[in-house]
C-alpha cells in the first residue's frame, strides 16, 4: 500500500517546490485571520504525492491540530462514490442508463411536474417521459433540494421536512418514497438542477444489489481501495480524529462552531445519504481519485473499466452545453460557466469561460463544508482539499486553489 506522505521531489513530476509553497502561504491567511479553523491539501502527479500540507486546527476549541489522519465530513463528495457504485452495477448488465427507475423504484411510476401555483395549491401535469437512470446520474431528473429556496418545489420539500436533512426516523427508502410523491421542478431531461438525485441513485444501488448502501460501499469500493477510514458515521474510537464543523461569523474569530450539525456523524444515521453522508480522510479520498485517474483500477483492484470512466467523465449535457446554458442558477458545488456535467462529476469544457486555469476534461466536485477535489487526466494530476466550513459558497477556496496549483506546473 502506498505510504501517505510526500513521496517524490516535486521537480521529478514537473512541479516547482517554491511555487507550491504559495498554496500554503495563501491559505494560511484563512486560518490566521479566523476564517477557517484548519485545512489540509494534497497534490499528486503521475501517481506520486508531490505536496501535502496541513495547517491550523481540526478542533479550535480543543486546540487539536490537523493531522494526516484527521476525519472530515465530505458531504457531496459522496456523490461521485455513489455514481461509481451505480456504474459498477451497470457494467454487470444490471440496468441500462435509459431504463426507467420505476422498474426498481415503483414509487416513481407516475411522476408529475409542477407548472404553477403556490405551495399550498400547486398545479401539476403528468411527466412526458419517465425518470431514467441517466437522469439521476446527470441531475436532470427534475428533483431538487429544499435548501435552494428559489422554486415552489423547493418549498414543498421543506414542508415535508427536507432541507439539509430528512424527517426524524426516515430511512433511505422512506426518503425516496416521499420525494416521489412531490412534483418535479421540470420535465425529466429538460434542465440540470442540483438535487437529491444521487440519493435516489443510492437507493437504486441498494435495490439492484440487494445490499444496504454502506455494505456495498465497504465491500465493493472502500475495502478494495484501502479506504479504511471512510464511512457513513464516525465510530466512538475514531471521534478523537474528527474535525469540528464551523460556520462563518462577523465576530472576531470569523468562524463559529456548529455543534448541532457536528454531532450528527457521531452516531449511525437513520438514512444512508449517497448524496452527502460520508466521513473520510484526505488519504482515503486521494486513493479514490487515484483509482479514477488510473482508469478505474488501483494497485490491482479494478472497480471500473477505463472506457466506462472515460464515458462517465465526458460532458453529457445536450448539445455539449455548459451548466450556465442548461442549468438553473442555483447553488452547486461548482461554477456554471464553462463546466458541463458527466455521470456524477462536473466536467470542464471551456477553461476560458470557466475563468480558471485548468484543462479541458478536468472533472471534479466538492462538499458542503468547503471540501473539494479534482482529477486532471491531461496533466495526470489529482488534488484533494479538506476543511470544515459550511456553506462552501462562503469563500472562493476551490478556484483559488486551482490557480495556485496550476501556476506551479513547469514542465
From TrEMBL:
A Pfam match: Beta-lactamase
UniProt xrefs under InterPro entries: Beta-lactam-related, Beta-lactam/transpept-like, Diverse_Enzym_Activities
Beta-lactamase-related domain sequence ranges: 23-400
Gene3D superfamilies referenced in this protein's UniProt entry, alphabetically: DD-peptidase/beta-lactamase superfamily
The protein, known as: Beta-lactamase family protein
Organism: Archangium minus
Amino acid at each position: 500500500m502506498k505510504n501517505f506522505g510526500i513521496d517524490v521531489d516535486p521537480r521529478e513530476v514537473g512541479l516547482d517546490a517554491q511555487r507550491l509553497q504559495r498554496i500554503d502561504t495563501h491559505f494560511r491567511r484563512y486560518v490566521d485571520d479566523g476564517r477557517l479553523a484548519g485545512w489540509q491539501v494534497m497534490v499528486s502527479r503521475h501517481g506520486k504525492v508531490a505536496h501535502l500540507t496541513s495547517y491550523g486546527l481540526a478542533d479550535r476549541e480543543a486546540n487539536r491540530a490537523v493531522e494526516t489522519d484527521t476525519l472530515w465530513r465530505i458531504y457531496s463528495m459522496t456523490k461521485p462514490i455513489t455514481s461509481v457504485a451505480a456504474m459498477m452495477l451497470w457494467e454487470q448488465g444490471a440496468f441500462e442508463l435509459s431504463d426507467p427507475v420505476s422498474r426498481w423504484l415503483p414509487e416513481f411510476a407516475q411522476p408529475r411536474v409542477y407548472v404553477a401555483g403556490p405551495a399550498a395549491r400547486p398545479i401539476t401535469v403528468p411527466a412526458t417521459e419517465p425518470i431514467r437512470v441517466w437522469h439521476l446520474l446527470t441531475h436532470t431528473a427534475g428533483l431538487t433540494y429544499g435548501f435552494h429556496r428559489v422554486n415552489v418545489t423547493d418549498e414543498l420539500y421543506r414542508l415535508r421536512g427536507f432541507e439539509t436533512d430528512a424527517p426524524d426516523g426516515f430511512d433511505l427508502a422512506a426518503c425516496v418514497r416521499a420525494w416521489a410523491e412531490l412534483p418535479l421542478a421540470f420535465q425529466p431531461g429538460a434542465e440540470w438542477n442540483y438535487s437529491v438525485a444521487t440519493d435516489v441513485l443510492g437507493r437504486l444501488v441498494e435495490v439492484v444489489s440487494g445490499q444496504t448502501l454502506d455494505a456495498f460501499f465497504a465491500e465493493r469500493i472502500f475495502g478494495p481501495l484501502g479506504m479504511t477510514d471512510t464511512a457513513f458515521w464516525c465510530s466512538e474510537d475514531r471521534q478523537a480524529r474528527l474535525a469540528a464543523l464551523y460556520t462563518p461569523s462577523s465576530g472576531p474569530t470569523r468562524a463559529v462552531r456548529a455543534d448541532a450539525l457536528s454531532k450528527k456523524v457521531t452516531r449511525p444515521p437513520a438514512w444512508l445519504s449517497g448524496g452527502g453522508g460520508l466521513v473520510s480522510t484526505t488519504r482515503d479520498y486521494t486513493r479514490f481519485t487515484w483509482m479514477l485517474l488510473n482508469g478505474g483500477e488501483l494497485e490491482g483492484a479494478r472497480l471500473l473499466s477505463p472506457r466506462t470512466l472515460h464515458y462517465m467523465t465526458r460532458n453529457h449535457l445536450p448539445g455539449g452545453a455548459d451548466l450556465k446554458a442548461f442549468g438553473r442558477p442555483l447553488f452547486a458545488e461548482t461554477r456554471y460557466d464553462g463546466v458541463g456535467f458527466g455521470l456524477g462529476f462536473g466536467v470542464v469544457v471551456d477553461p476560458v469561460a470557466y475563468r480558471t486555469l485548468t484543462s479541458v476534461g478536468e472533472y471534479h466536485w466538492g462538499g458542503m463544508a468547503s471540501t473539494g477535489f479534482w482529477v486532471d487526466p491531461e496533466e495526470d494530476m489529482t488534488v484533494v482539499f479538506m476543511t470544515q466550513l459550511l456553506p462552501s459558497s462562503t469563500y472562493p477556496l476551490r478556484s483559488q486553489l486551482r490557480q495556485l496549483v496550476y501556476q506551479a506546473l513547469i514542465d
